[in-house]
Amino acid sequence: MKHYELELPQGYKEAKVIDAKDSKVGLVMTLVSFLITAAIVTVACFIIKPTWEQLGKDVSTDGFIWHMLVFLVTMVGYIVLHELTHGVAYKLLTKQKLTFGLTLTVAYCGVPNIYVYRKASIISMIAPFVVFLPVFTVLIFVLPLTVDKLLAAYMLGMHVGGCCGDLYGTILYLFKYKNPKTLMRDTGPKQTFYVPVDEQ
Question: How much is the average pLDDT of 185-192?
Fold first, then answer.
Protein backbone atom coordinates (compact mmCIF):
# COMPACT_ATOMS: atom_id res chain seq x y z
CA MET A 1 0.00 0.00 0.00
CA LYS A 2 1.31 3.42 -0.95
CA HIS A 3 1.76 5.68 2.08
CA TYR A 4 2.84 8.98 0.48
CA GLU A 5 3.29 11.10 -2.62
CA LEU A 6 6.41 13.08 -3.49
CA GLU A 7 4.27 15.80 -5.07
CA LEU A 8 0.69 16.87 -4.46
CA PRO A 9 -1.33 15.09 -7.17
CA GLN A 10 -3.68 17.02 -9.44
CA GLY A 11 -7.27 17.23 -8.30
CA TYR A 12 -6.59 18.10 -4.66
CA LYS A 13 -7.54 21.16 -2.64
CA GLU A 14 -6.28 22.47 0.70
CA ALA A 15 -8.89 21.67 3.35
CA LYS A 16 -7.35 22.52 6.74
CA VAL A 17 -4.19 23.97 8.26
CA ILE A 18 -3.06 23.43 11.85
CA ASP A 19 -0.10 25.67 12.63
CA ALA A 20 1.25 25.35 16.18
CA LYS A 21 3.45 28.41 15.59
CA ASP A 22 0.37 30.58 15.05
CA SER A 23 -0.09 32.60 18.23
CA LYS A 24 -3.84 31.92 18.52
CA VAL A 25 -3.47 28.20 17.86
CA GLY A 26 -0.53 28.01 20.26
CA LEU A 27 -2.50 29.79 22.98
CA VAL A 28 -5.52 27.49 22.59
CA MET A 29 -3.33 24.36 22.60
CA THR A 30 -1.44 25.57 25.67
CA LEU A 31 -4.71 26.28 27.51
CA VAL A 32 -6.23 22.92 26.52
CA SER A 33 -3.03 21.14 27.52
CA PHE A 34 -3.02 22.86 30.92
CA LEU A 35 -6.68 21.99 31.58
CA ILE A 36 -6.15 18.35 30.60
CA THR A 37 -3.06 18.09 32.81
CA ALA A 38 -4.90 19.66 35.76
CA ALA A 39 -7.88 17.34 35.31
CA ILE A 40 -5.73 14.20 35.16
CA VAL A 41 -3.65 15.20 38.19
CA THR A 42 -6.87 15.96 40.12
CA VAL A 43 -8.35 12.54 39.29
CA ALA A 44 -5.04 10.87 40.17
CA CYS A 45 -5.03 12.59 43.58
CA PHE A 46 -8.40 11.02 44.34
CA ILE A 47 -6.93 7.61 43.44
CA ILE A 48 -3.57 8.04 45.20
CA LYS A 49 -5.02 9.92 48.20
CA PRO A 50 -1.75 11.54 49.26
CA THR A 51 -1.27 13.03 52.71
CA TRP A 52 1.23 15.67 53.81
CA GLU A 53 2.62 13.12 56.25
CA GLN A 54 3.30 10.63 53.45
CA LEU A 55 4.87 13.25 51.20
CA GLY A 56 7.06 14.55 54.01
CA LYS A 57 8.26 11.03 54.80
CA ASP A 58 8.95 10.26 51.12
CA VAL A 59 10.97 13.41 50.57
CA SER A 60 12.92 13.15 53.81
CA THR A 61 13.76 9.51 53.08
CA ASP A 62 15.18 9.89 49.60
CA GLY A 63 15.72 13.62 49.36
CA PHE A 64 13.69 16.30 47.60
CA ILE A 65 16.51 17.30 45.25
CA TRP A 66 16.95 13.72 44.05
CA HIS A 67 13.22 13.40 43.20
CA MET A 68 13.21 16.72 41.35
CA LEU A 69 16.34 15.86 39.34
CA VAL A 70 14.89 12.51 38.28
CA PHE A 71 11.61 14.21 37.42
CA LEU A 72 13.28 16.91 35.29
CA VAL A 73 15.42 14.37 33.44
CA THR A 74 12.33 12.21 32.85
CA MET A 75 10.34 15.17 31.58
CA VAL A 76 13.03 16.26 29.09
CA GLY A 77 13.64 12.65 28.07
CA TYR A 78 9.92 12.13 27.48
CA ILE A 79 9.69 15.17 25.17
CA VAL A 80 12.57 13.79 23.10
CA LEU A 81 11.10 10.26 23.05
CA HIS A 82 7.66 11.61 22.11
CA GLU A 83 9.04 13.23 18.97
CA LEU A 84 11.27 10.25 18.21
CA THR A 85 8.17 8.03 18.33
CA HIS A 86 6.55 10.20 15.67
CA GLY A 87 9.79 9.92 13.73
CA VAL A 88 10.05 6.14 14.00
CA ALA A 89 6.48 5.75 12.72
CA TYR A 90 7.07 8.14 9.82
CA LYS A 91 10.40 6.49 8.97
CA LEU A 92 8.96 2.97 8.98
CA LEU A 93 6.04 4.00 6.79
CA THR A 94 7.75 6.41 4.37
CA LYS A 95 11.54 5.98 4.71
CA GLN A 96 11.81 9.70 3.97
CA LYS A 97 13.93 12.41 5.57
CA LEU A 98 12.63 13.65 8.93
CA THR A 99 12.87 17.08 10.48
CA PHE A 100 12.98 17.78 14.21
CA GLY A 101 12.77 21.07 16.05
CA LEU A 102 11.95 22.95 19.21
CA THR A 103 10.43 26.39 19.71
CA LEU A 104 9.21 28.20 22.81
CA THR A 105 5.76 26.68 22.34
CA VAL A 106 6.23 23.36 20.56
CA ALA A 107 8.60 20.44 20.00
CA TYR A 108 8.03 18.76 16.66
CA CYS A 109 8.87 16.07 14.14
CA GLY A 110 7.74 16.13 10.53
CA VAL A 111 8.32 14.87 6.99
CA PRO A 112 8.16 18.17 5.09
CA ASN A 113 9.13 16.91 1.64
CA ILE A 114 6.23 14.54 1.03
CA TYR A 115 2.44 14.27 1.22
CA VAL A 116 1.33 11.43 3.49
CA TYR A 117 -1.88 9.47 3.04
CA ARG A 118 -4.53 9.27 5.76
CA LYS A 119 -3.67 5.86 7.25
CA ALA A 120 0.05 6.60 7.62
CA SER A 121 -0.74 10.05 9.03
CA ILE A 122 -3.04 8.65 11.69
CA ILE A 123 -0.50 6.01 12.74
CA SER A 124 2.31 8.57 12.95
CA MET A 125 0.24 11.16 14.83
CA ILE A 126 -1.24 8.80 17.41
CA ALA A 127 1.88 6.65 17.99
CA PRO A 128 3.28 8.59 21.01
CA PHE A 129 -0.14 8.71 22.68
CA VAL A 130 -0.57 4.95 22.37
CA VAL A 131 2.99 4.14 23.44
CA PHE A 132 3.29 6.37 26.52
CA LEU A 133 -0.27 6.35 27.90
CA PRO A 134 0.07 2.87 29.46
CA VAL A 135 3.64 3.59 30.65
CA PHE A 136 2.71 6.58 32.83
CA THR A 137 -0.59 5.01 33.91
CA VAL A 138 1.15 1.87 35.16
CA LEU A 139 3.81 3.91 36.96
CA ILE A 140 1.12 5.61 39.05
CA PHE A 141 0.14 2.23 40.46
CA VAL A 142 3.51 0.47 40.73
CA LEU A 143 5.85 3.16 42.10
CA PRO A 144 6.24 2.64 45.84
CA LEU A 145 6.45 6.25 47.08
CA THR A 146 3.50 8.63 47.07
CA VAL A 147 5.60 11.53 45.81
CA ASP A 148 6.70 9.44 42.81
CA LYS A 149 3.12 8.42 42.11
CA LEU A 150 2.17 12.11 42.00
CA LEU A 151 5.06 12.93 39.69
CA ALA A 152 3.99 10.05 37.42
CA ALA A 153 0.45 11.46 37.46
CA TYR A 154 1.81 14.83 36.39
CA MET A 155 3.78 13.14 33.59
CA LEU A 156 0.59 11.37 32.49
CA GLY A 157 -1.26 14.69 32.47
CA MET A 158 1.57 16.39 30.60
CA HIS A 159 1.62 13.53 28.11
CA VAL A 160 -2.10 13.59 27.34
CA GLY A 161 -2.17 17.40 27.32
CA GLY A 162 0.89 17.51 25.11
CA CYS A 163 -0.82 15.16 22.66
CA CYS A 164 -3.79 17.52 22.18
CA GLY A 165 -2.55 18.60 18.74
CA ASP A 166 -1.98 14.99 17.68
CA LEU A 167 -5.39 13.98 19.03
CA TYR A 168 -7.07 16.90 17.26
CA GLY A 169 -5.56 15.85 13.95
CA THR A 170 -6.62 12.25 14.55
CA ILE A 171 -10.18 13.33 15.40
CA LEU A 172 -10.32 15.34 12.16
CA TYR A 173 -9.33 12.23 10.25
CA LEU A 174 -11.82 9.99 12.05
CA PHE A 175 -14.84 12.28 11.79
CA LYS A 176 -14.22 14.73 8.95
CA TYR A 177 -11.56 13.57 6.49
CA LYS A 178 -12.60 9.93 6.12
CA ASN A 179 -11.50 9.54 2.51
CA PRO A 180 -8.42 7.24 2.45
CA LYS A 181 -7.06 9.44 -0.37
CA THR A 182 -6.76 12.41 2.00
CA LEU A 183 -3.18 13.68 2.09
CA MET A 184 -1.29 15.67 4.71
CA ARG A 185 1.94 17.64 4.50
CA ASP A 186 3.55 17.65 7.92
CA THR A 187 6.41 20.13 8.33
CA GLY A 188 6.45 19.50 12.08
CA PRO A 189 4.76 22.49 13.65
CA LYS A 190 2.36 22.79 10.70
CA GLN A 191 0.02 20.18 9.23
CA THR A 192 -1.86 20.89 6.02
CA PHE A 193 -4.69 18.57 4.97
CA TYR A 194 -5.57 18.07 1.29
CA VAL A 195 -8.67 16.36 -0.04
CA PRO A 196 -9.79 15.43 -3.55
CA VAL A 197 -11.62 18.37 -5.18
CA ASP A 198 -14.69 16.25 -5.91
CA GLU A 199 -15.14 15.43 -2.21
CA GLN A 200 -18.32 16.96 -0.85
Answer: 92
